[in-house]
Amino acid sequence: MYLNELSRYDLRAQKYITSRQKSLLSKLDLFSVSDLLTYFPFRYEDRTQIESIRESLTKNKPVTVVVTVTGHQSIFYNRKSHPKISVQDGESQAFLIGFHRPYLLQSLHIGKKYWLTAHFVYKFNEIQTSSFDFEEYIEGEDTENFGAILPIYQLTEKLYMKELRKLFRSTLELYLPQIDDELPEYIIKQHNILDKKSALQNIHFPGSIAEMKRAKLRLAFEEFLAIQLAVTKKRIFFQTVHKSYRYEKRVLLKRYLTELGYEPTKPQRRALEETISDMVSERPMHRLIHGDVGSGKTTVAIGAMIFSAENGYQSAMMVPTEVLAVQHSEKMNSLTAPLGFRTALLTGSLSAVERKEIVEAIKTGEADFIVGTHALFQNDVEFNNLSLIIVDEQHKFGVEQRIALSQKTDNPDVLVMTATPIPRTLTLTLYGDLDVSLIDELPKSRLPISTKWVPHNKYDVMLDFIAKEIDRGRQAFFIYPLIEESMYLESKAAKEMFLYLQKYYKTLKIGMVHGKMKSSEKNEIMRQFHEGRLHILVSTSVIEVGIDIPNSSVIVIESAERFGLSQLHQLRGRVGRGIHQSYCFLVTASEVTEETAARMKIMTDTNDGFRIAEEDLKLRGPGEILGVRQSGMPELKIADYLRDEKLLTTARQDARIILEHDPELEKPANLSLKKGILDFLPGDYLRSG
Is 620 exposed, middle or buried (0-12, 13-18, 19+ CB in 10 A)? Predict the structure, then answer.
């Protein structure tokens, strides 16, 4: 039986677990035996070395000692009596302060010896501790909680560490003998890694620090190998598919590049050449264009769409918001109408009459380029001859949405784009089935954005600076995390600050957009701002992605501590898109944590999106940055994207070699990989699209 199969074994059916424990385990999202066995410790406590009370003071760390209880006292705190127990280790006396632990007087008997793990401090002219773990010391007898390396798990209220460890011991004792290894013997020998049984035993109850590290290595490798088998299998499948589309003409593509009005960067040209090369090949394109904000991905995408259109085909671009769809369609129309092409905009806010007209133009082929939101993959939308699909800011979409659009035609060329800088390990994991074009250079005309962290006593100075920028003809964004004030969150809100700014800037025209407005209202405000009829735009993070207003030179991000680093970088990228020096002001609460201060320093130190993404990955994990749950990517329980890059690379190489020789994993040596790993991956992750 493979560990994944134990997901069918409900914890509620386990007789050795009490009803109370089952209820508490459910609060940790632990419902099956598999869930429990893969609930790994977040750290370990080494209790193998017996030290002294004094060493805890000199080394400023917890120690494990053997002490004798020498007396019982009490202290009064908050009108209650609490135990104060004196102990001696041979050279030092210390006191155990048992806040809210009255039972200690009956548990720790005078004259008896006890194991004790505690971090001692010097306080009130004596050595004491109020956080400690103990167990009676009996010469020559083994103990479960001392003299070993013990796992420390995340707990929930009323679930105690000792009872959780006991549950793990019972579960391992019962189920470990039944577990088969997912990894073939030849992989285990090749990499000299632990077998599955040893890895599970040593991740929970390691015999040594070295064995714990080997267990982590084995389990992390297995997680990466599972993902790489899936993405490599998808890549191999794509290579077996042939498409019917044939592209030959590129006269209008060359004209488009000539009439752009600026010289594309070398990475832009390289990305377009790689895209065109994919399109003319016999196999469907599956390519990612990965570039920082403002690097010019849309220019490349439009070039690919023109190449498709001049060869007689349609192309569709799916974007996450209607505001961005409107902007893209207007830009596309201005660039491609002179070439004789029609752009259609399909969004959810169209009237029934407008929608019917657009859907008909798509069906007949009258529309060459179709830009839209999720409305593109609704059932009544039929394409005439769709050959190219472009997904912008693709991590904003779920797997099902991408698949639904891809199924509108046979084996389309697919180009996905993201402006969220992603560390290499995440790229290999999330986009391992795609070829990657990296645009790692900004246009030469772009000046670095000056980013400042604004303390509250300088807020009015910032407002006056913005007034001067607007006097020079520039425009400004003010971004807020909330639409309205909340009694639960100390954070400025868009609506109240909109009124405040109107009073402060009496002569300026100020608009506001947020997610609860009707699309038509949002689009009208954005149009006024784009045309320069508004000086300031107050907004929530609805403008995070893709909005391009070259004349905007200032963005103020209020309550910046409430945004992740990658989101702050995306928001900052709304300025700096024109020829003028641009500024980003980060405004935080008057009192901030050390973590917030560190994050603000990163933002003010660098405009490098990839460095920012790595820091964000350390702080928040991939789910928050990329919407990993939407991507269908399995959640990693022990591997680390930053720490384990070499391990991921090894797993990727192994997956490629294995599947080259055994594409369906049918050989006896590889059956365990299929039955133990692939059969249990999320279905969406194995599907194309």
Answer: middle
